[in-house]
Design brief:
Distance between the termini: 30 Å
Shape: globular
Strand content: 15-25%
Number of helices: 6
Largest sheet: 6 strands, mixed
Radius of gyration: 18 Å
Number of strands: 10
Helix content: 25-40%
Strand order of the largest sheet: 6-5-4-7-8-10
C-alpha cells in the first residue's frame, strides 16, 4: 500500500522533502514577504508563533503527556524571536497546554507589549526570575522553548541577562526546543515552522516522524 496521499485525480502525492533555510535565505524570504507581498511584522510573528505551537503539539501530543509534562516554559528574548515566543505561548494555551513565560529582558517594543498583554489576559504566568538551580526547572516543567535569540544570532551577542538564561537552559535535562530555523519545501518555499528540537533526553516522549530532530 502506498504511503502517499491520494488527491482528487487519483494520483498519489508523495510527502515533500523539508529542509532548513540558511540565515541568508530566511532573511531574504522575510524581506520578500514584508516588501513585495506587504505582510505586516505582526502577521509574520503570529504565523511563526502559531506554527511553532503546532510543532509542539506534533512532537509532544497532549494525550501522550502526563499532567506535569503539559507544563511548558517559554523563554523569550527582547527581539523579534521573543515576540514569536510570546505568540507561541498564547497559542499553546489555546491548545490546552500549560505555558509559563520568562523574559530575561523586558522589551519596550510596542509589539512585545501587546503580546505580553494578550498573554496576561489569558492568565499565562510570567516568572520574575529564572531559577539558577536547574533541578527546580526540571521538576516544574515538561518542556522548555528557547525563544531568546533569532536565526543566525551568535551567542556572543546575547546580553548579560540573556546569556545567563541561555547558560541555564543548556544545563537542563528536560526537552529543550528552539525557534531558530525556518523549514521549507520545494512547493511552498516556506512553511513558517520556526521550530528546531535541540535536545531530547532518553526518557522524553518520542517525537512525531514529521518533526525533524537534531
Amino acid at each position: 500500500m502506498s504511503s502517499g496521499v491520494h488527491n482528487n485525480t487519483g494520483h498519489v502525492q508523495l510527502p515533500e522533502e523539508r529542509r532548513f533555510l540558511s540565515t541568508s535565505e530566511a532573511a531574504a524570504l522575510e524581506r520578500e514577504l514584508l516588501e513585495e507581498y506587504r505582510f505586516g511584522r505582526q502577521q509574520l510573528v503570529e504565523l511563526c508563533g502559531h506554527a511553532s505551537a503546532v510543532a509542539v503539539t506534533k512532537a509532544f501530543p497532549l494525550p501522550s503527556l502526563s499532567r506535569k509534562q503539559r507544563t511548558v516554559l517559554v523563554v523569550c528574548g527582547p527581539e523579534q524571536n521573543g515576540a514569536v515566543g510570546l505568540a507561541c505561548a498564547r497559542h499553546l494555551r489555546v491548545f490546552e497546554y500549560q505555558p509559563s513565560i520568562f523574559c530575561p529582558v523586558r522589551s519596550a517594543d510596542a509589539l512585545h507589549r501587546d503580546l505580553t498583554t494578550q498573554c496576561e489576559k489569558m492568565d499565562i504566568p510570567f516568572l520574575s526570575f529564572l531559577p539558577a538551580e536547574v533541578r527546580l526547572i526540571d521538576d516544574a516543567y515538561g518542556l522548555v522553548v528557547d525563544a531568546v535569540l533569532g536565526p543566525g544570532v551568535p551567542l556572543a551577542e546575547a546580553g548579560g541577562h540573556c546569556a545567563r538564561a541561555l547558560a541555564t537552559l543548556k544545563r537542563l535535562s528536560i526537552p529543550l526546543a528552539g525557534m531558530r530555523r525556518l523549514a521549507a519545501t520545494q512547493r511552498t518555499r516556506c512553511s513558517l515552522m520556526c521550530w528546531c528540537p535541540l535536545r531530547r533526553p532518553r526518557a522524553a516522549p518520542a517525537a512525531s516522524p514529521d518533526v525533524s530532530t537534531l
